[in-house]
Amino acid sequence: MAPQYKLTYFDVGGTAEVSRYLFSYGGIEFEDVRIKRENWAQLKDKTPFGALPTLEHNGKVVGQSVAIARYLAKKVKLVGDDDWENLEIDAIVDTINDIRLKVFPIFMEKDEAKKKALIETLKNDTFGFYLPRLEAEVQKNKGYLVLGRLTWADFYFTTLSPMFDLITGEDVLASYPNLKGVKEKVNALPVIKKWIEIRPKSHA
Amino acid sequence: MAPSYKLTYFDGRGLGETSRFLFKYGGIDFEDVRIKKEEWPQWKEKFAFGQLPVLEHEGKQVGQSIAIARYLAKKVKLAGNDDWENLEIDAIVDTINDLRLKLVPIFYEQDEAKKKALIEVASKETLPYYLPRLEAVVKKNNGHFALGRLTWADFYFATISRVFLHSFTGSDALADYPNLKASRQKVNEIPAIKKWIETRPD
Q1: A101 touches chain B (CB under 8 A)
Q2: Name one Pfam family in it (chain A) (predicted).
């Protein structure tokens, strides 16, 4: 029987990896569709708002990586026990997303000098502002980002953090042992470790 | 008795207004704290991530406007009936936010020539991409942004569209989008919201 869920994204981790992790964690079968960049132009207008990832289920299609991840997190029980706990998770996820929004445009910058300057600002102002505060949250939460236990916020951070190293060419979490610990803990979960081993080799 | 909720934001609508609408809609008492821009520097350090809005309740503090709105929407029953319905609402809210984020740089651009170029892109590419698609969603959903009925997504568009759509085009950006316009109008006419609009400080 075909998997009930189809996740479509590019052939990279990016903003879809958190959902691939969640599917794997929950043992939920999913069709892991990876679009080649050269085919994107013709597929773009078939998506709800010209963006990936999309999730298909029971004939319906939705976009938005964080919304999809939140939905899957509920299915695999990596959420809060009540509305306030879910608010706390959502707030940390949105904060991590705020970092991603500052990182992402820099990849697009073609002017090398400008790019270098943007990376410096990223390191000093963005990472310098957010990472110490996130580090403090993890210290306060026994090695997790929120609620003192494993939630989808930890998956979200883990799967986006490779972007930080990619843009700077540095080990950005080197001076943040607690944040690094979150990433290592998540990636060492047996089901996640297995996913990392079996995911397509083309995965960047 | 003091309200059990305190919402802190700047003295304007911006990203705080969706939550104020939700509080008012649900008849939930809240302390509507407004910080003047000049005073912000001394307040900034009181909040974990130095940003507004912040919601305080039972001694705890959280930030992030959309997360706060989602929480309040559940309290006032403007959320989905199951996880997939909530996903549909979340997805359209995030899409409206994506549109907002694409337009925000225009406000901050000081260089007139660069600003003009950004407005050009917004008018020729961004708005023509998003607005017709949002219009189609609302048409398909009986005048709402999701699930064929009133949800917090309607409140989100009604409040956020004021922030980004009018300030830079100078004209009515929704002129050609009757369903989007009607949805916003309908939200503003909800009695509790109408009353709030008449009495709010700004």
Answers
A1: yes
A2: GST_C_3
Provide the pLDDT confidence category of residue A72 given band limits of 50, 70 and 90.
very high
CATH classification code of B83-188 = 1.20.1050.10
A61 Cβ under 8 Å from any chain B Cβ = no
Domain formed by B5-76+191-199, architecture = 3-Layer(aba) Sandwich (3.40)
Q: What is the mean pLDDT of residues A26-38?
A: 97
A203 found inside a domain: no
User: Using CB atoms and an 8 Å cut-off, which of residues 69-98 of chain A contact chain B?
Assistant: 70-71, 74-75, 83-84, 86-88, 90-91, 93-95
Name which of B25, B173, B188 is nearest B99 in CA terms: B173
Q: How far apart are CA B176 and CA A203, in angstroms?
A: 43
Q: What percent of chain A has pLDDT over 90?
A: 97
Nearest to A64 among B55, B84, B91 (CB): B91
Helix ranges (DSSP H) in B27-126: 40-44, 65-75, 83-108, 112-121
Helix orientation angle between A83-108 and A152-160, rounded to the nearest 10 degrees: 10
Query: Do A15 and A49 lie in a common domain?
Result: yes
Q: How many residues does chain B have?
A: 202
Identify the closest residue of chain B to A90 by CA–CA distance.
B67
Question: Is ipTM over 0.85?
Answer: yes
Average pLDDT over chain A, rounded to whole? 96
Give the pLDDT score at A204: 60
Check pLDDT > 90 for residue A101: yes
Kindly give the residue spans of alpha helices, DSSP state H, lying in chain A: 17-25, 37-44, 65-75, 83-108, 112-121, 128-140, 152-160, 162-168, 177-188, 190-198
Same domain, A140 and A52: no
CB contact under 8 A, B71 and A86: yes
Tokens 């959320």 correspond to what residue? Answer: B79
Tokens found for residue B7: 């919402």
pLDDT in tens, B12-24: 998 999 999 999 9
- CB-closest option in B70, B87, B101 to A90: B70
Question: How many angstroms away from the CA of B54 is the closest CA of chain A?
Answer: 10
pLDDT for residue A202: 76
Q: State whether residue A199 sits within 8 Å of chain B by CB.
A: no
